[in-house]
Each structure stands twice: as structure tokens, then as C-alpha cells.
Design brief:
By secondary structure, the protein is of the alpha+beta class. 24% of the residues lie in helices and 23% in strands.
């Protein structure tokens, strides 16, 4: 049986999502917890929607795990609750407080946490006003000593939206493509709510390559400080080279807020589409600097 896991975690004390020998990771703890409550010979393998880096938080992470039905039945014991509900309760009893599984449900046919996803949405939070600096929020809000021009940052990011090769904004991985569709890249300074007064980036794409969000934020901050002109993020995109000089901001200001999926009957087709490698010609034909504020 394939189970969907909806989870959240404070990334402060984790060395990222992926299992690494000798390090505390989200995947490692989650798989160990599953193995403990299911009493398996080895930890079940979990597949995640998006692997987060060390220090990055998640409020809306999604994963799946495949468990033999007879094993799930045995793990329920004498409880009369549904299998998924019983497993959720058992996990809650063994997981640490900085990793929470909110829901365990039977996955629909064709569901793959990673490949069926349509989009991932992240938020990056910055405080640039000493009067609003909150020590209780220091683990998930970046403190920035210089005031930022949010309107300039927002205008400069507009040309990056669309389907492009984000090689300048990603740490390269052998054999991996850097073509992505950036659906939303906006900056704002909310007037009310929990983020009131903060400088907040909303970044949404079909997928992200390694360090892409934090590099997008870094390029925006350079514009907001006035160190770079408003056309620089687009020029950086056009360079298609990591050597172009983009700065990667610290991880702790970044939170994975949501992973979006299509309707159940479209899950399998979406997974097949996502597995198809993105090619160099498959990008937005719009010039990188089109519509820039410049």
C-alpha cells in the first residue's frame, strides 16, 4: 500500500532532508521511526516532493512510502482504528518535536510525491528594520542590517518568471538539467498578519534545482540594497553560468509552504511528464530582459 505523508519540520537542527551517514536528517529520522513502529528488518524508503537543504524549514512537505498491507495490519495490533490513523498515532509517539507528521492517508492510484507534483511554493522572510527585529523569530527570519527597496526587488524579479535555464542560479549536479518554470517570484512588505513589516519573497515553480531559491533571493537583495541595478537579475539569468556571481543567502529564512498536485485521475500522467528530461530548446522564447524595469 502506498501511503501519503504530510509533514512539517523546523530545519534548524537538521542537516537537510536526505540521509547522510552520521548526520541528523529529516529522511533519516522519519525512516527510522517508520521502521520502529512497523518493526521492519530495515527502515522503509521514503520518497519526498522536494529535498530541502540543511537549515531549510517546511510547513507543507509531502512524501510517500510503500508498505506491505500485511505488515500494516500487524502493526495496528488490536486497535480498531483505520490503518493510516493508527500509524499516525504511533509515529507521533516516537518522532522528535521538530518533526511532525500531520496526516497519513492512502495514496490515490498513480500518486508519486515527487514526480506527480505540479508545483512547490516557498517563502523567504527578511527583517530589515531593527524596531521589528524579533529574537523569537530568529530561526526562520533573516536579519538584514540595511534597508531594502522592496518595489525595486519585485520589479527586477519579474523577467525571471517563465520557463528558463536557471544555470546561473543553481549549484550544478552531474547530468541534471537546470531548466525550470518559475511561475511566481514576488516581493512584498505585508502591512498586517504574522509577517507584518517583514520583506517577504513568494517563489513558486514546477520544481527547483539545488540552491535556486536562495540564489534568486540573493540576487534580489543586491538590487534592494542598491549594489546592483534593476536589470542585473535578468542579466545573470542570461549568462547561464554559476560563475556570474550570484550570492546564496542563509538557509534559515526559507520555508517550503506548499506542494501542489493535480486531480487524482491526472496523477499518473503528471508523473510521466515530469520524468521526461527538460531540453535546452524547451524554454520560454521571451528575451530574458523583456519587460524589465530598466
Amino acid at each position: 500500500m502506498r501511503l501519503r505523508l504530510d509533514l512539517a519540520y523546523d530545519g534548524s537542527a537538521f542537516a537537510g532532508w536526505a540521509v547522510q551517514p552520521g548526520l541528523r536528517t529529516v529522511q533519516g529520522l522519519l525512516e527510522d521511526a517508520l521502521g520502529m513502529v512497523l518493526r521492519t528488518d530495515g527502515p522503509p524508503r521514503v520518497t519526498v516532493a522536494g529535498r530541502t537543504d540543511s537549515g531549510v524549514h517546511a510547513r507543507g512537505q509531502v512524501a510517500h512510502v510503500d508498505i506491505p498491507v500485511d505488515l500494516l495490519e500487524r502493526s495496528r495490533g488490536r486497535a480498531e482504528r483505520p490503518i493510516a490513523e493508527a500509524l499516525l498515532t504511533r509515529l507521533d509517539g516516537v518522532l522528535p518535536t521538530d518533526l511532525v507528521v500531520h496526516a497519513v492517508t492512502r495514496a490515490p492510484e498513480g500518486f508519486d510525491a515527487r514526480f506527480s507534483a505540479l508545483r512547490r511554493r516557498y517563502t523567504y522572510r527578511i527583517c530589515d528594520d531593527a524596531a521589528r527585529r524579533d529574537p523569537l523569530a530568529r530561526a526562520h527570519v533573516l536579519w538584514h542590517r540595511r534597508p531594502l527597496d522592496v518595489e525595486a526587488m519585485d520589479r527586477a524579479g519579474t523577467p525571471l518568471q517563465g520557463r528558463h535555464d536557471f544555470a546561473s542560479y543553481c549549484k550544478p549536479r552531474p547530468g541534471a538539467t537546470t531548466i525550470r518554470t518559475l511561475e511566481v517570484f514576488r516581493w512584498s512588505r505585508p502591512l498586517d498578519g504574522p509577517d507584518a513589516g517583514l520583506v517577504v519573497a513568494t517563489v513558486q515553480a514546477d520544481a527547483f534545482c539545488h540552491s535556486m531559491v536562495r540564489t534568486l533571493v540573493g540576487a534580489s537583495v543586491a538590487v534592494g540594497e542598491g549594489r546592483r541595478g534593476p536589470s542585473w537579475p535578468a542579466e545573470l539569468l542570461a549568462a547561464k553560468s554559476r560563475l556570474a556571481g550570484a550570492h546564496v543567502v542563509p538557509a534559515h529564512g526559507l520555508t517550503l509552504e506548499e506542494v501542489g498536485y493535480p486531480a487524482d485521475e491526472e496523477l499518473g500522467a503528471r508523473a510521466a511528464q515530469t520524468r521526461a528530461r527538460r531540453e535546452a530548446h524547451d524554454v520560454d522564447p521571451r528575451p530574458a530582459n523583456a519587460g524589465c524595469c530598466g
